Amino acid sequence: MSLEIGSSGVKVSDLFTSPVTSTKAVYDWIYSYADPRVDNWPMMGSPFPTVAIFITYLLITRYAPAYMKDRKPFKLKYPLILYNMGITLLNGWMACELLYCAYMRSYNPVCQMVDVSNNEYELRIANVVWWYYISKCMEFMDTFFFILRKKESQMSFLHLYHHSTMFCVWWVGARFVPGGSVMAAVAVNCFVHVLMYSYYALAALGPHIQRYLWWKKYLTMIQLAQFAAGVTCGIYLIVSGCQFTRWMQYMFVAYAFSFILLFGNFYQHAYLLKGDGRRPDQKKDAVCEKKQQQHNKANGNMNGVVNGKTATNGNLTYRATATAATNGFSKNGTNKLI
């Protein structure tokens, strides 16, 4: 006896006997759960434009670095400042808009069903979730700036996984659940992005500002706390029987947990350990100590003479006729080759 896929009326065996018809039936069944309010919104009519952009992004990250290999990196100081400030302002607006609308609707911050009515505030919440999805596409520029500046080392698996999948996952969010408990997750992430992109904007101003930006480490800690809170909240919703879309709860918990693993690994290697197993501060101390030893050694073998004593500089020997000389040159410049 073949299992049926949900309430689609399609059995698993049908996918093999009549794949086209069965796949379409499953697709239509899934789409029956989509929020009808966003049917005619840009990019919401079908998942295929999002999938096409996703694939294009991956192709660019695969081949564009090779195109830039023999070219000079672009200096993009001002575009970076404008871009990062723009993303900061967008996330700030989204966070404020969500919090205001949730307050006006007396939202439960943990368990809240999606209201698909045309209430003014519910439509505004759905609109923000849609803009949040669009912002994930805008953030592809992070990667493109790395490529143009030849900073491919920063295009880690974590970076590519985070940027590419967020765009796809939040298409699902905007299409099926643009409201309810999703609101809290979006608002928190927008707040985190305000901190992140304001940091990036300041860093783009140059070294004279970068030396004062001491909180980069704490941005990663905030991100980890965000994901941990998300997983905890998601598990609570599942266990407590919250009626917010159950499949979304499972997907969110699994997705947030993957970020805990990846960001945790990044934090460990970036801030706790370096390649030789030492913390960055320990390695920095070791480098400073080595430089000091080299400096002392150089001073001990300084090329020059004092009070007429002979000093060796490579294969040449000099004698100073003045009373004091340093690095082979006397104060009056009367060194003689002997």
UniProtKB/TrEMBL annotation:
Chain segments annotated as transmembrane: 41-60, 81-100, 130-148, 160-177, 183-206, 218-239, 251-273
Topology versus the membrane: Multi-pass membrane protein
Signal peptide segment: none
UniProt xrefs under Pfam families: ELO
E.C. designation(s): 2.3.1.199
Record's subcellular location: Membrane
EC class of the enzyme, as a word: transferase
Keyword Lipid biosynthesis among UniProt keywords: yes
Domain of life: Eukaryota
Principal location class: membrane
Record's catalysed reaction(s): a very-long-chain acyl-CoA + malonyl-CoA + H(+) = a very-long-chain 3-oxoacyl-CoA + CO2 + CoA
Keyword tags: Fatty acid biosynthesis, Fatty acid metabolism, Lipid biosynthesis, Lipid metabolism, Membrane, Transferase, Transmembrane, Transmembrane helix
Entry similarity comment: Belongs to the ELO family.
Protein name, UniProt field: Elongation of very long chain fatty acids protein
The organism's taxonomic lineage, starting at the top: Eukaryota, Metazoa, Ecdysozoa, Arthropoda, Chelicerata
